[in-house]
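Full entry
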Amino acid sequence: VLAGVPAEWFTAKKSLVVDSLPTQSGKTHIELGSSSNQHQIEIRRDELPDEYDVHIPSSVPMPMVKAYGASIVERKSKAASPFIKLVPLSEETVLTFHK
């Protein structure tokens, strides 16, 4: 999820919303936004896959990314496109990282 999204979109002041994105495991709703002290990535799926990867800009320190509604099972910061592998525990997953 989010491979190829420009790094600036992760830290934009206005939210980026992608609704009903078709994926291999069904439609996905994605929202990139920020609050007063953090940025967040919200992912909502009706059908849960066994796991999925969320690509993160290389400027974000991997240990600072927290997941809610999913378990982080792998962090790949050295990859050409850094990502976090998640096992979803609910229909909605939220990843956060500080500004």
Summary: The first helix runs from residue 7 to 10. Residues 7-98 form a domain with the Maltose phosphorylase, domain 3 fold (CATH 2.60.420). The chain has a mean pLDDT of 88. The chain has one helix and eight strands.
